[in-house]
Design brief:
Length: about 375
């Protein structure tokens, strides 16, 4: 493997931190933290640069919140200054790590994403459906991947192509964040009340965690393709899909991958792992994929309708701004555009009405 040195020298420069600022502020130029940083831009960048050069850089305290849609999960939002530094690191590290990425890795990869993953899966389903024997789809999902991955494994995999102690110092600082535990127990059912575990997990929601997730699972991709020699295989973050010509071969592959994950990464597959005959629908990246059509999962469509109702209700009381509501609505139309669900799309278009009730109107209605 080629080793890269002098990475920190390219990372810790005023010009690169400014580029990181441009990347970090994208689509968020008017939020409070961005406006504050932008008002004293040169001063903030020089301060961040000095902290890096003198090795006094420490991450700020992340804001932790729960995301309830499409499922309950923990998200960490870093102070904008840390997002600038992370974005600057991403800019110099991405070209190094992406060289080794498997071609059918779609999560958090520019110009790929969920839609391209679904189309490629459909293409493979159509190819194998025409073959004389019955093919099978193996669907593998890692148990609490972002909250069970050991820190030492993250640093081990990030360090493989790097010959730069200064860059590794930064990566360790960024991953360990402010020292709080990010891990969750293996069998926890409620992430809001579970006790956090030290030494495992990562702060979900940052560019560094997205990059780390892809880097760590790249050896798994190559193991499946080069060692097991699975003919069709793809991955979207920690969701893995493969197609094989027999049911027994599919389950054998699942067992080999599970063993490999446990021995090398301290991870394991969860109960969502399944083997399905090609021709039957397979749930992947929030969709139900058939060889000839794509539908939304029932749970996804129900959550979508609940979210739309939530938006209309809270816009009417003034709790949500118009731009946010319009952006969410357009994003859902974009999602539905690539699914075979015309009736759901028409229902959402017909039912979506934004009405703002003023205080006077509420008083009048209350009187009536």
């Amino acid at each position: 493997m080629e080793k890269h040195s002098h990475i920190f020298e390219r990372f810790a420069t005023f010009e690169n931190l400014y580029d990181g600022y441009l990347l970090a502020r994208r689509n968020k130029r008017y939020s409070g933290g961005v406006l504050q940083y932008s008002a004293n831009l040169e001063e903030y960048i020089i301060n961040d640069l000095n902290r890096l050069l003198w090795k006094t850089y420490e991450t700020g305290t992340p804001f932790e919140f729960m995301e309830y849609f499409p499922k309950k999960r923990i998200i960490y939002s870093m102070p904008f200054s840390d997002r600038v530094v992370n974005a600057a690191a991403y800019k110099v590290l991405w070209p190094i790590y992406s060289k080794s990425f498997y071609e059918h890795s779609y999560g958090s990869v520019p110009e790929k994403g969920a839609l391209r993953a679904v189309k490629k899966l459909q293409e493979w389903m159509q190819i194998t459906e025409r073959k004389p024997q019955q093919w099978y789809i193996g669907k593998m999902d890692i148990t609490k991947f972002f909250f069970r991955l050991p820190v030492e494994v993250q640093l081990r995999e990030l360090g493989r192509p790097l010959d730069d102690n200064d860059m590794m110092w930064f990566l360790e600082t960024a991953i360990k964040c402010d020292g709080r535990p990010f891990g969750l127990p293996l069998r926890c059912t409620d992430v809001t009340t579970a006790e956090r575990v030290s030494g495992i997990g990562m702060q979900t929601g940052s560019l560094i965690s997205q990059l780390t997730a892809n880097v760590v699972l790249t050896p798994v991709d190559h193991y499946i393709k080069r060692e097991i020699r699975v003919p069709y295989y793809m991955r979207y973050m920690d969701d893995m899909i493969f197609l094989t010509p027999s049911k027994s071969q599919a389950w054998e592959t699942v067992g080999q991958v599970d063993d490999y994950l446990q021995e090398n990464f301290g991870l394991q597959l969860n109960e969502k792992t399944a083997v399905i005959p090609v021709g039957n629908p397979v749930e992947f990246v929030g969709r139900k994929v058939y060889p000839g059509r794509v539908e939304l999962r029932k749970s996804t469509s129900l959550q979508l309708k609940k979210h739309i109702a939530y938006i209309m209700e809270h816009y009417s009381t003034g709790e949500l701004p118009l731009d946010y509501c319009k952006n969410v609505f357009q994003s859902y139309l974009g999602l539905l555009k690539h699914c075979d669900c015309e009736s759901l799309r028409n229902k959402i278009i017909n039912d979506f009405v934004l009405v703002r009730h003023t205080e006077n109107e509420n008083q009048i209605n209350a009187t009536l």
